[in-house]
Each structure stands twice: as structure tokens, then as C-alpha cells.
Amino acid sequence: MLQSPFDTERTKISTRLLAGRAFLVKTPPCSFYLKALTNWLITGSHGALVYGRPRLGKTSATRWVLRVLPELVGNVPNLEVPVRGQNIASERAFFQHLLRCARHRHAMTGTAGDKRDRLTEWLMARAIRSPVNTAVIFFDEAQLLQDCQYDWLLNMGNELDKAGCRLFCLLVGQSELAQTKAKFIDGGKEQIVGRFMVRELEFSGIRSEQELASCFKEFNYTIYPMETGTSFAANFIPKAIQSGFCLQELAPAFWSVFQEKWLSTGLGHDAAIPMHYINASLIGLLNSLVSHDRSELTVSHDLIAKSISASGYIESLQALKAGQQRRLNG
Hints:
- This protein is α/β, with parallel strands linked by helices.
- It is about 55% helix and about 10% strand.
- The protein folds into 2 domains: about 5-20 and about 205-325, no CATH class; about 30-200, P-loop containing nucleotide triphosphate hydrolases (Rossmann fold, 3-Layer(aba) Sandwich).
- It is built from 15 helices and 5 strands.
- The protein has a 5-stranded parallel beta sheet with strand order 2-3-4-1-5, with helices on both faces.
- Helix 7 links the parallel strand 3 and strand 4.
- Pfam families: AAA_22.
């Protein structure tokens, strides 16, 4: 059976959202993160660790923070770099990757030194125009960085310092980043720790019904796609939205199910729900409500529970519990 144009568009919206390519919403952890990064930048720090378990939304949160940051401190140029795992790190390949992320037209030519100089000049030209004389490199999956790569970044940072600029390395990744910091301290690499790792933030999931309601409120009032002028939720349940239905009304029921599944897995009393499963559950619910859209829309607890189960949330809790058990067993 062929999909209607409306079904096709909803599928695209759902896919883009889950891939993190539709729109970014402000969450309570995002607000805390923005405050922290602003403080790090205005107090002269050169780097920070932002870490946490998978699926919490660290990458999307970082993109949101960097997008909003200019409203607080002015233009701060930034470069997003997805870190590649390598068996043997090559200086030439490392700086070539960074130049390609910057879309530099001469990324592919020259020696390792040529590429490092190009990147340094590229960052310097942008940092010098910033109110805080800083350029940010956002390393995503930074736990994959190797020791020598930190040395290369340190050298480049020194060159920017000499020119009156600052390189700020925002190292975002899994919890192993905290172990990397401890390893450098034990190994006597205080210079790297002092430059890039003094500041740190353990990123959190959504921790309360109030925080979840705040997320749903952002979804409710976000316009997407922008060119349509339509709210995100109205792509799925236009009649209900037109009649005043608000997604945040669903927060108590959603939180009840999320927390009940968390507690039943034996993970303790402090639930922290990853944004991925909140997004997936909400998208699943909205898609299931398309055929039930009406002015007086009611959403059953059972339908919410089914959308959460279908998101993979329960399996993620089981994996998290298994990981905790392995660590306890040594």
C-alpha cells in the first residue's frame, strides 16, 4: 500500500529527529551545560571534559549549547570533529581530518606540518575576531583520542597563545574520559590535564517529571519544518493541537512508566532517562496517534507504555544493569 504524501513527510520528520538532524530542543541538562561552558570561556579555561553514558544526548546538547552561546558571550567560532578510532595515529591524517571537518579547500595536500599550519591559521583568523579571542574545537567521541594527539593539540594551542588567541578543546564522550584524565595524572602528564581537562561536567539524563515536562513543552512549541510554520506535533495530530492539546500534559504518565521500568531493573532510586529514548518514545506515540486525531484527544496509559517499550528503553536498562554487575564482579 502506497504512503500518502503526509505519511511520507511524517516518516521523514521522525527519521530526522531520531538521527539528531531535525531540530535541537533546550532541556534542563542543556541549560546547566550552557552555564558551565560560558563560565569556562570567560574565566580563561582552555578545555573541558563532558562525559556520560551513551544515548544521553551529549552530542545534541553540545550543538545546542554552541548555537546559543553567541547570545551570551558573542561570536565564538567552533569546529565539530567526530573522532576516528585509529590503531596507529598519524599526525598528517589527524590534521587532514580536522581540515576536512573545517571544509578547508587545501585539506588534502601537503605534509603533516603544512596541514597543522593551515589549521592553526584557520583557527587564528577566526579566534582573533571573537570577543573572547577563542576558537572551540568540539571533539565528539573524544575517548577515542590518543595520547600523541593531545600532544599535537597542545602544540597548536601554544601557537595560538603566542598570537594572543586561545584554543578551547571541548572533549565530549563516554565515561572513559574521566579514566583518561586519571591516567594522564598518574603518568605525569599534568601539562595536558592542566590545559584541557581541569574543567569537567558529568552529563545527565532527564531526572524528574518536571524536567520531562520542560522537554515536552519545547517539543510542543517548536516549529518544524520551519518553512511550513507548523508546530512539530501538529504534523501528527493537527486537530488536537489546534484545540489546545499540549504535549507536556503527557509528562506525568510518561515519567511514571520510565521510572517504573528503571526501578524494576534494580538501578536504584535516581532515574536518569536518556534523551534518545524520550525522543523515540514520543515519536512512536505521535505516529500511533495519527489515526486517532480529534479535537478531544485522550491518550491512554497503555499506549504510552507501549511506545516506551518499543523505543528500546527496557533493553537499554538491562544492558546498563549488566554493565554495573560486571564492574562489581571485577
